[in-house]
């Protein structure tokens, strides 16, 4: 797998996904994940950070090998969210963190980091190596790819 080193590519990472992972067969892990997601929603509503949980997947979806929930975080709140979740994450929940760029395969392999135990991904499900457009999410917030220059 190659690495992109151009400065313009490095600037192309203003949004991240934090994927919460937990064992599908563990009721305790599910409860812990739901509690963490509730806390994320609460802190988000209080304006402590911007972190948007998407749908909860009870079974593997796409490249993700177990139950999961994707949380979108713009670069403006990456450090604050990362520091908070590092302290709040229960041991039954792992996090897979990656940038959002046009290079979906690189984002899920070479640019990925785990908090807690890692999990192998099914990268065959990912889109072509380079997408035509950067994956902007929540443009109404004016953050990440939608930030005003």
Automatic annotation (TrEMBL):
Show the stretches that span the lipid bilayer.
Answer: none
Highest taxon of the lineage: Eukaryota
Q: Where is the signal peptide?
A: none
* PANTHER family recorded: AFR070WP (PTHR36423)
The name under which this protein is listed is DOPA 4,5-dioxygenase
């Amino acid at each position: 797998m190659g690495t992109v080193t151009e400065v313009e590519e490095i600037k192309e990472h203003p949004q991240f996904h934090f994927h919460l992972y937990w064992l599908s067969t563990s009721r305790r892990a599910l409860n812990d994940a739901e509690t963490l997601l509730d806390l994320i929603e609460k802190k988000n509503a209080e304006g402590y950070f911007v972190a948007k949980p998407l749908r909860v997947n009870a079974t593997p979806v796409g490249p993700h090998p177990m139950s999961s929930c994707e949380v979108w975080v713009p670069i403006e709140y990456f450090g604050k969210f990362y520091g908070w979740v590092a302290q709040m994450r229960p041991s039954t929940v792992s996090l897979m963190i990656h940038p959002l760029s046009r290079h979906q395969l690189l984002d899920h392999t070479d640019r990925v980091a785990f908090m807690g135990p890692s999990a192998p991904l099914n990268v065959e499900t990912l889109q072509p190596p380079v997408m035509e457009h950067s994956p902007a999410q929540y443009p109404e917030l004016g953050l990440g790819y939608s930030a005003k220059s």
